[in-house]
Amino acid sequence: MNPDGSSPFKGGPSRKRRQAYSVAAITLEAAANVAESSDILAPLKAACRTTKLILDNMQAVDNNQEGWADLTQRMEGYMLAIENQIESFAKYPPEDREVNEAFSRPLTDYVDFLEESHRNITNQRHKRKRSGLNELTEVSKVMLDADTIRKFNRDIEDQHRKFIDALSLFTAYRIQAVERDNKAILANVDNSAILQLPMVAFVASSVHTTCLQGTRQAVLKTISHWAGDDTSHTPIFWLCDIAGSGKSTVAMSTAAIWKAEGTLGGQFFFSMADSEASTTEKFCPTMARELADHMPELAPHITEAVTQHPAIMRTSLCQQFRTFITGPIRNRKKRVIFVIDAVDECKAGRKRKELLEALATATRESTNLKIFITSRPDPAIETVLQPLSIKRKLEKMEDRLHDVDHFDNTDDIAVYVDQLLHGVLSEDNRQRLVKKADGLFIWASTACRMLTSETRWSSPEDIYNRLISVEQPGVIDDVYDLLLERTDPEGRLTTREILALLLAAFEPLTVGDLDDLLKHTKIGGSAEALIRNLGSVVTRDETNLIHFRHPTFVEYLKRRSTSPVVDSHSNFHINVGNAHGQIASWCFQRLKSRKDGLKFNICQIESSFYLNSQIPDLDARISKFIPTALRYVSYHWLFHVAETDDNWRRILENDIRHVIQIPYVLNWIEILSITGGIPRLIRGLRSVSRHTGVSGLSG
């Protein structure tokens, strides 16, 4: 284009000019009705059409040919510039050519000016045709033409300049929009690579909460001082205490504080009740996704690490942490804090030690990295952490957190009990309950839930009396015994069987899936009824998953599953082996379901040659086409078969043979492949192969 308005042609009308007219006429005629008023092409095409009409009229003017010829050249240059813009903008998608009032006003003003100019020149032509001109008139008319030409030149130059300025502004705006789009595309590429990383689905907030207002202030102050001290030589803070002392609640509070400050890199809450959250298999990729979420500026560095190390998940935990975490945070000057709760609930002692060694190595390699860890007392943890010179500080925190003689602990539980039981128990009874808790928060919180439950079978006074009458203060098993004794006598057996199913499940079940399982096993009852009656120890999160509230209840149920069966309500017993068999039977029923079971190309992917990483909406397809129950049974049926007894394995023999035949086996492996479950499949096969009674799967 020619923003200065100069003509691309020299001299009078030429062959090139005539060709330009022809091209312009053909182009405008073909596209005259295409663009709408909101499209940038509309005013451009209108301006070009009107300019051509003006040029046609100017060609017919007889007087002052030299002046009109110069103006014609200028108009031709303007028209060619507009044609070039039309050709350029026509390549834009329609949505990118939309203009608002601020952009379109100078363009439409220019078109209005050209139309007015066209009318004036047409009038000049008609006047000339109607009146004969003598020699004197010819001279005066040439002077008049010169004035008209000068004014028209001045006006059109001014209007064209505004026109070009508006186009330049629109072009600059589109360039900025393209740059933003490019950044968004790059960000999506980053997100796509990061979202391919496997992640533990367990959500800490579904089970744990932050500290009640006004409690744990001394502990939180000490931790906050450690976090803010950049000169400290103790980058790892280990909060160590017995089960039920409130460590996870403190961890939730510290994570919330650091998130608000912008220093939280990520959090991982181990849980013995979840198959994924009780191992380190997905620890590092989960933390990498957490880091990208909390500190988006590090996402490109995490993406680079992922793309440069496609086989990173096959390396050691230490190498994974170095690649996913240590490397990216070197690009940040400020501190980064990670929260790792309940390390002792990582089931494999060897993996637990490997994790601690990886964390210790990372803090030595990164001066801006700090790690907050909670666990029960564990010699393996202490052995690894002791060289980091933090034992003294941790011992001090141990004493402050669970020293029953320290005023913090008793006062914090008193605040908690007073807030929850005000109006339920008298002040004297609340104080006795605090004393009975013996500094154990889980004892106090479970007791409070029992006393405030809307579905309790006894009055608060009766429940209080039973709580106070337990022999040993602070023994959580006594509270759980009392809780289960108070359930509806007619539904006590059903409660036992449902709890056995939940304990046997390798990950939390949804309310709907548990109800389907209960229907299949003919146990009776419902998930809703269980949550209503055992809300003190069982909860449902916002995604409808059912969780045990605390690992101490999981441990309580495990102990009750190994006790001999005694027909007494005070000796609660559950049969977990039988529950595994029941769930395995349900798994086969779900796998073979014609409606919601296995099927070919279940996610409706266009080609089987695509890698998972090449399918941008894979997660959305998985959520849409693979029900939660089908994902669960695909991942875990092998383990349920392995964990049940020989009698159940004989019962399930035909189902096993059926599922491992084509096409079922291929469709099953397809689900595992697109959901990242192949490692789980391999471990399941190894687990089942240990049982010689499993026909078709054992070696």
Automatic annotation (TrEMBL):
Q: Which top-rank group of organisms is this from?
A: Eukaryota
Pfam families, per the entry: NPHP3_N
Q: Which UniProt keywords apply?
A: Repeat
Where the record annotates domain Nephrocystin 3-like N-terminal, the positions are: 215-376
Q: Which PANTHER family match?
A: AMELOGENIN, GPI INOSITOL-DEACYLASE
- What protein name applies here? Related to S. pombe trp-asp repeat containing protein
Q: Which organism is it from?
A: Serendipita indica (strain DSM 11827)
